[in-house]
Amino acid sequence: MQDGARQDDVTGQTDQTLPTTAPAAQAAAAPTRAAPRLSRDALVGGICGAVVVLMVGASYAAVPFYNWFCRATGFNGTTQVATSAPATAPLARRIAVRFDANVAGGLPWKFVPEKTEIEVAIGEVVTVYYTVTNQSARTTAGQAAYNVSPLTSGAYFQKINCFCFTEQTMAPGETREMPVVFYVDPAITADHENDGLKTITLSYTFYPVRDAAPKPVAAGEPDKPRGNL
To answer: Has UniProt tagged this entry with the keyword Membrane (predicted)?
Structure first.
């Protein structure tokens, strides 16, 4: 009887200890299961960060790529840059070229073409002038954006020289004549999309340059003889 009582006591003690040991074991195992979840979260966060960096980099790269693409193809009416006159003589076919001038807000310039329209032979090299006046009492700088219309003519409008290639800085009250040297590429005659083309409009818009590079003081001063020390 005493042995049986002892067994019952042992069994009772065992049953009482099970509820207390099971939660402890589960608590000890909990951190082990949380570790993989934290690793997955870190991996997802790293991937998201990399995607953001790539998207930002692509947005910056898209601008110069778009400009290069427009210059190379004439897309969106972007004119071409030529290094010399065409090798062939001008053609008998003639076309009218109109000139448009605009100034964006914030730039106190008067900007007008000397002629609003001329007629040129296809393949003929022509020089025209725009007049620019800085109407403010301070030095200002601007950069000209440009295109031609209709847009399909951009691939054939070749500029040999243009004020739009570089930033322009104007002294207070200064007036300047700015030339444009161009020709219409004879290859346009092989493009049947432009068979009925009679007029091309060359349009410029000057935009202010906010952070114009200051000219070094020494660059504008001649060297002066110095006395002996």
So the answer is: yes
